[in-house]
């Protein structure tokens, strides 16, 4: 939006015929964009440091674009003169006044220094310039490097130029590549460490925000793969070649959403999952039901090796964690965003030195089946996440092991 408007700072005249100052149209539109951008950032409660860094980049872009455009326009000897400098200075002052009013004055002075220095040179009366030698020019306009200053003085109204006086010293090397500003030297984006208005430990209760998030994710999936109705399968915590976990659930042992289970229901479900002999429920599998037979064979071979080494582990187990000030230390992912078309909560990663890491039992790719005896089967990702976040200081998790993570 700024790109087609910024040349107006060089071309438009802020002075009317009567000499009064007014805001040219292109300059007014640039100020309008900056005003609405700042207002939107404040309404959305964007972190103050992020706001500062965003406007630092905007001002960096304005400076680099205007300076490079000024250098290109100056080639030919007709653009660099006093009246042009005064005209551009007036337009830049309008932007500086806006920045001061928005509390961004120091930021604007720092990032607009290059273009301001070049314009100040042009706005200097030529009688004063003719009395200055190269060393004095370098001192007065020190923000310009030798190549930039020499380019401007060489193209400054040739009929008044002083080629000998305005020539660089012998120890200064001039290259044309140093004249233009690089857009690659933009300020970095540094994530703040504190001062947030969003409490990460508090569950999101705004249903409108959740709906907007789901809509946003669906739009991303459509853009990523417009010809497919299925969501994309990005790289996830669970590998594509996962081994088949033989989980079998008896219908009577399944927990229904919305019902409060009896005492020891997690242990009962654990035993039922391990020992039942009916066909496996697809919602409790960590791999698709029609996984190729060779994967199952590979799992059986690996399982026999683990058994021989005495390292065989439970496929389903119950684990109680002590929540710390930083939470449980689990990075979770929706099953629909993994290679497995099974809705559920999977462990994407375990944060070091967290309660989950100290338990030494939870691994990347494990699936959380129930929390405090309440089954997560059939629940959407956001609801399941809220149940885990609100599960108290000592939540009991029913976890299905993913041996693919070992």
From TrEMBL:
Gene3D superfamilies: 2.30.42.10. GO terms for biological process: angiogenesis; negative regulation of Rho protein signal transduction. InterPro entries: Dilute_dom (IPR002710), PDZ (IPR001478), PDZ_sf (IPR036034), Vascular_dev_regulator (IPR052072). Residues 1-192 form the Dilute domain. One of its GO terms (molecular function) is GTPase binding. Residues 277-314 are annotated as: Disordered. GO terms for cellular component: cell-cell junction. Residues 302-314 have a biased composition (Acidic residues). Residues 318-403 form the PDZ domain. PANTHER family: DILUTE DOMAIN-CONTAINING PROTEIN YPR089W, RAS-INTERACTING PROTEIN 1. This is Uncharacterized protein. It comes from Phoxinus phoxinus (Eurasian minnow).
């Amino acid at each position: 939006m700024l790109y087609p408007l910024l040349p107006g700072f060089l071309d438009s005249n802020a002075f009317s015929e009567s000499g009064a100052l007014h805001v040219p149209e292109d300059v007014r539109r640039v100020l309008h964009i900056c005003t609405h951008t700042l207002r939107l950032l404040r309404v959305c409660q964007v972190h103050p440091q992020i706001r500062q860094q965003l406007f630092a980049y905007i001002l960096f872009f304005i400076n680099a674009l205007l300076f490079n455009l000024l250098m290109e326009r100056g080639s030919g000897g007709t653009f660099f003169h006093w009246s042009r400098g005064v005209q551009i200075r007036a337009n830049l002052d309008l932007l500086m006044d806006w920045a001061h009013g928005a509390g961004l004055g120091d930021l604007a002075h720092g990032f607009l220094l290059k273009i301001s220095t070049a314009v100040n040179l042009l706005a200097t009366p030529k009688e004063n310039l003719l009395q200055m030698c190269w060393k004095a020019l370098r001192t007065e306009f020190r923000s310009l490097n030798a190549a930039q200053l020499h380019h401007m003085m060489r193209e400054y109204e040739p009929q008044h130029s002083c080629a000998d006086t305005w020539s660089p010293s012998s120890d200064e090397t001039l290259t044309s590549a140093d004249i233009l500003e690089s857009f690659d030297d933009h300020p970095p984006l540094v994530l703040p460490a504190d001062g947030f208005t969003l409490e990460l430990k508090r569950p999101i209760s705004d249903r409108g925000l959740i709906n907007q998030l789901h809509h946003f994710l669906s739009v991303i999936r459509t853009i990523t793969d417009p010809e497919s109705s299925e969501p994309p399968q990005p790289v996830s915590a669970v590998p594509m070649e996962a081994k088949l976990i033989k989980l079998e659930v008896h219908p009577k042992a399944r927990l229904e959403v919305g019902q409060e289970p009896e005492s020891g229901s997690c242990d009962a479900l654990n035993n039922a999952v391990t020992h039942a002999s009916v066909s496996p429920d697809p919602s409790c599998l960590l791999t698709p039901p029609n996984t190729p037979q060779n994967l199952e064979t590979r799992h059986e071979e690996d399982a026999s090796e683990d058994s021989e080494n005495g390292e065989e582990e439970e496929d389903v187990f119950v684990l109680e964690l002590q929540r710390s000030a930083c939470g449980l230390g689990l990075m979770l992912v929706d099953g629909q965003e993994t290679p497995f078309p099974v809705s559920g909560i999977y462990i994407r990663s375990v944060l070091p030195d967290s309660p989950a890491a100290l338990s030494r039992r939870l691994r990347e790719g494990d699936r959380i089946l129930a929390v405090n005896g309440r089954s997560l089967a059939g629940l959407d990702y956001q609801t399941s996440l809220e149940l885990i976040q609100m599960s108290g200081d000592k939540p009991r998790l029913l976890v299905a092991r993913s041996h693919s993570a070992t």
